Amino acid sequence: MRNLTRSPLLLPVVFFVVVILTGGLLLHNGQGGKAGALSWTDAFFTSTSATCVTGLSVVDTGSFFTRWGQVVILGLMQAGGLGIMTFTSLALYLWRRRVSFTDRIAVGQSLLHDPGFALGRFLIQLFCVTFFIELLGALLLFWQAPDAFTPFSAVFHAVSAFCNAGFSLFNDSLMTWKGDWGVNLTFIALIFLGGIGFSVLIEWQSVGINRFKSDAVNVNNRLSWYTLTVVKTSLFLILLGWILIYLAEFVGYHRMTATEDAVLSALFQSVTCRTAGFNTLNISEMTNVSLFIMLGLMFIGGAPGSCAGGVKVTTFRVLIAAVWSQLSGRRQSVIGKFAISEDAIKKAFVLFVFAVAIVFIASFMLDFTEGGDQPHDLVRGQFLEILFETVSAFGTVGLSTGITPTLTAAGKWILIVLMLVGRLGPLFLISAVQAFQKESWYALPEKNPMIG
Question: Which of 18, 146, 132, 24 is nearest to 73 (CA)?
Fold first, then answer.
């Protein structure tokens, strides 16, 4: 326990808790809402959802909150997005250089001794890249629809999209724009860039600049194995979700007569499941098959070092490689031209088990608080809605079938804790477990029990 309390891993926990408490206090103030003050539960729920860039809402953001309240939510989204990108990007930087995160991150002091790293330059670069992408997205939205996306609205939605927050000032999210390719592609680009990871963005930038240098000699102008793995896996999941949602939602259900709108809507829903939380379709009217597909995409989430949540695409890819190696009889688990270390496979498996256990426990608790004393025939269909809400909160997605405002106070607090755990979980849980681990200096005799 002493190792954990002294660990710099407490830094992100303290950061998010302080920001959430501050945001809750500000939103509870009567000046935040047009119809009066939020209850303490709803205020902290909204603050947690914005800081953890989730997007689940108990009230309509555009109509309930005053401009002051909307500015507070905008600030919380930006702080949460920058905060998690900073902590996870620092961790990723250390990991890729095989430096112990627990021993070396302490407020960046020891990093300053690394001649290849400057904490100040690193943070400035992170902030500049973030603000540039958000500003460009806001300008594109304002240019395409200046009446709907006013300067404030354009900035609000650009920040919300890049931070994968999913908060919208429109009461139907983006359903009004389901057939607008320009607006949809702008949001898709912002969501993808916000969910791909800061290190990947910087590497893209460096490789792009190097390729345009005519006098560059022996300059690395190729993407790293890690970046290629993240990009390929992300695109594969988006493409797979796009096809499956289109088949499940439009071929079998015939929701739309316009094929072009159907293709675009399926693509947008696949991308937004990366933990963005926007929607161009009414989630409560989608088929069960579509919701099931979206559950899987939300659970996986985006890339490490990004604003996205979930267990991360790298975890998914490592587990797929491990399973395939077992099925094919290979000794090593291979991705591309490299084999995955046993330590990485174990971490991916532990993270997956942790995530499944957390979702199961939270779903059980919500089933108990939201009608656990009623017979099944009176709450038929609620299990899928609760499971969808739980995965959405854990993956910091923000998509909902519409039950968020109707949850009991106990149910909302369960989601508050779940959103915070989901935001910090992949980084904090595994490292916290490692803080308690002790190296064994002996080995026991091995046995092979019957499996299956």
Answer: 24
| DSSP for 317-350, written as a single string | HHHHHHHHHHHHT-SSEEETTEEEPHHHHHHHHH
Q: Is 172 helix (H, G, I), strand (E, B) or coil?
A: coil
163 DSSP 8-state letter: T
- pLDDT number for residue 452: 65
Q: What is the CA radius of gyration of the chain?
A: 22
Residue 175 backbone class (left: φ over 0; alpha: ψ -120 to 50; beta: rest): alpha
Instruction: Give the pLDDT of residue 204.
Output: 83
From the list 316, 396, 399, the residue with the least C-alpha distance to 359 is: 396
The number of residues in the chain equals: 452
Within 10 Å of residue 3's Cβ, how many Cβ atoms? 13
Is residue 201 over pLDDT 90? no
CA distance 133 to 164: 13
In Å, what is the CA distance from 436 to each residue of 5, 238, 395? Answer: 11, 37, 26
CA–CA distance from 227 to each of 160, 163, 164 (Å)?
24, 20, 20
Confidence of residue 277 (pLDDT cuts 50, 70, 90): confident
- What's the CA gap between 393 and 283, in Å, rounded? 15
C-alpha torsion 338→343→345→346, nearest 10: 180
Task: Report how far residue 308's alpha carbon sits from residue 301's, in angstroms, rounded to the nearest whole number.
Answer: 6
Among 90, 50, 55, CA closest to 398: 55
Q: What is the DSSP letter of 179?
A: T
Sign of the CA dihedral running 137, 123, 312, 42: negative
Is the overall model pTM greater than 0.85, yes or no? yes
